[in-house]
Amino acid sequence: MTGSGTRIGVFGGTFDPIHRGHVDVADAVHRALGLDRMLVVVANEPWQKAGRPVSPAEDRYAMVEAALRDHPGLEPSRIELDRGGPSYTIDTVRRLLGDDPTAEVVVVVGADVVGGLVTWHEHEALRDLVTLAVVDRPGAPGVDPSEGWRFVRVPVEPLDVSSTALRSRLEAGEPVDGEVPASVIRCIAERHLYATGR
Ligand code: ATP
Ligand code: MG
Question: Is CB count within 10 Å lower at the N or C end of the chain?
């Protein structure tokens, strides 16, 4: 953590839908590391999720915007939507560093993602450009990133929630209050997502 410029957090995800676990992680990392900016980056085409239907990117972005309205330090980012195509973190990081070559980029990942970093597009180039902030996730192994990654662990109050579980509950018409911010629940209803209001 030696960069002299702006320190930018990049928390990427599918956010289908965004939930309290996500917001808590973004908040905790932003504060714990004293980052200048904390971007919550909505994947346009989450290539790791090929094979299952994903809600339209604009709907997922609208939910992220709704969730972060009360969190002025956290910025919804359209960078991957505007770029289009499959969403690779390396492209996002290069874009941020292109705009501000002195910036330091911190990529935030949950523990469930760490084991798969080796499958990420141009992961070796990414490893040389960023520091990882790793947060624990209930049920996920507490493994460290492989050799060569700069990383810090950031403690977060564990919240056993996932978008997959929430989609099932929403589709079954079950309540998700408490785990999904009220502003996001309104957004889901307005946009008729997850077969709500059918
Ligand atoms: P899905 O079940 O659809 O995979 P998800 O809840 O895992 O959804 P993603 O959009 O896949 O959400 O995750 C984006 C990022 O947020 C990942 O780095 C993931 O590890 C992290 N994350 C998601 N939920 C939690 C949680 N409850 N605690 C800590 N990290 C989380
Ligand atoms: Mg996930």
Answer: C
pLDDT of 17 reads: 98
CATH number of the domain within which 66 lies:
3.40.50.620
Q: What is the pLDDT of residue 49?
A: 87
Report how many domains make up the chain.
1
> 102: Cβ below 6 Å to ligand 1?
no
**What is the chain's mean pLDDT, rounded?**
95
- Mutate which of 119, 136, 137 for ligand 1? The one with the most ligand atoms within 8 Å of its CB, which is 137
- Nearest ligand by distance to the CA of 55: 1
Across 106-145, b (16+ Cβ under 10 Å) vs e yields: bbbbbbebbeebeebeebeebbebbbbbbbbbeeeeeeeb
For ligand 1, atom 26, the nearest C-alpha belongs to 21
pLDDT of 196 higher than 80: no
